Amino acid sequence: MSTATTERSWVGPSAPERLNILRSTQSIAIVGASNKTARASYFVATYLLSSTNYRVYFVNPVLDEILGRPVYASLADLPEVPDLVEVFRKNDDLPGVLDEAIAVGAKTLWLQLGAWHEEVATKAEAAGMNVVMDRCVKIEHARFHGGLHLAGFNTGVVSSKRQVLA
Question: The CoA-binding domain covers which part of the protein (predicted)?
């Protein structure tokens, strides 16, 4: 089912619910992690490693190492069950990633910005998982923890007037 031709009816967790998910998460697996510095998954990985206490794992069957850390071929190969599976894969791959996440017992399926798959969300929720779609875990974490300025999203000034530099 193409998301471009279907109307969105699934409603994701509220901001307080997303904060709760992030607070209860201790480990994150980034599925579709890349070693290319221009990719969103690489940027998210560097943020998570430098600005959080999460145990971060990379999943990509064609890479051996990212940021000096091992890369695992699948979720089943990880040394622990990840609390949160963050997905950087195309929509056609999402059902398979969900099946893997359910099989290992992950608690949350988090689909990156631009990823939306209502059937996957429904199946994940039926399996007892939390689901977040079309949101960036880095942006969400930063907005709840005062770090949006790290990516230039927040100047720290709330005003409709231009700031005068001294």
Answer: 21-115
14 Cβ neighbours under 8 A, 6+ residues apart: none
CA distance 9 to 62: 35
Specify whether the CB–CB gap between 135 and 113 falls below 8 A: yes
List the CATH number of the domain containing 141: 3.40.50.720
Compute the Cα dihedral for 7, 13, 18, 22 and give only its sign.
negative
Q: What is the pTM of this model?
A: 0.84
Whether 163 is covered by a domain: the verdict is: no
Tens digits of residue pLDDT in 128-137: 999 999 999 9
Q: What's residue 65's pLDDT?
A: 97
d(CA 133, CA 116) in angstroms, rounded, equals 6
Residue numbers in the chain where pLDDT is lower than 50: 1-5, 149-161, 163-166
Question: Sheet holding 108-111: strands in order across?
Answer: 65-66, 69-72, 55-59, 27-31, 84-87, 108-111, 130-132
For 139, the domain range is: 15-151
pLDDT tens-digit readout, 135-153 = 999 999 988 876 554 444 4
Give how far the C-alpha of residue 51 lies from the chain's centroid of Cα atoms, to the nearest Å. Answer: 15
Residue 8, domain member (yes or no): no
